[in-house]
Design brief:
The protein is an alpha+beta fold. The chain has one domain: Trna Endonuclease, Chain: A, domain 1 (3-Layer(aba) Sandwich). Helices cover about 35% and strands about 25% of the residues. A hairpin with a 3-residue loop joins strand 2 and strand 3. The longest helix is centred in the first third of the chain and has 18 residues. The protein is globular, with a radius of gyration of 15 Å.
Length: about 130
């Protein structure tokens, strides 16, 4: 049976591998920022380019001024949004946050990675543009 091919599979696969390396070394129990710094090192070691903590304005309806801003943890290779958590358990609100970030940043693929559980947790998200035809 052939593996299913996902958009940016190579990037997400490498990101997950880097996150596994971080979790294997640090385990759980640290603050999110510690995992973020360690993951930045591993992403660089894997040859991936990334941006950290990129601010994105949030708009409401047709109002021209933003009502606030959010910061994604990583944008990897300019294609994949990577959101980190350090929680005992991921909940649906974290999934919603990741999907909202994908919409706000106009990306199709995202990863939600949780370092807070005993074993590393991750979920891959694909935001498919709605077909207007």
């Amino acid at each position: 049976m052939e593996k299913e091919e996902y958009k940016y599979r190579d990037i997400t696969h490498t990101c997950i591998g880097a996150a596994m390396e971080v979790h294997k070394f640090l385990g759980n129990g640290f603050q999110e920022v510690i995992y973020q710094r360690a993951l930045a090192i591993e992403l660089s070691n894997a040859g991936l380019t990334y941006q950290r903590e990129i601010a994105q304005a949030i708009f409401y309806k047709d109002i021209p001024e933003p009502i606030g801003e959010r910061r994604a943890d990583f944008i990897v290779e300019g294609k994949v949004l990577l959101e980190l958590k350090a929680l005992i358990k991921l909940e649906e609100v974290h999934w919603a946050q990741t999907l909202n970030y994908l919409k706000a940043y106009h990306y199709e693929v995202g990863l939600l990675v949780n370092f807070g559980a005993k074993s590393l947790e991750w979920k891959r998200f694909i935001l498919t543009p709605k077909n207007n035809s």
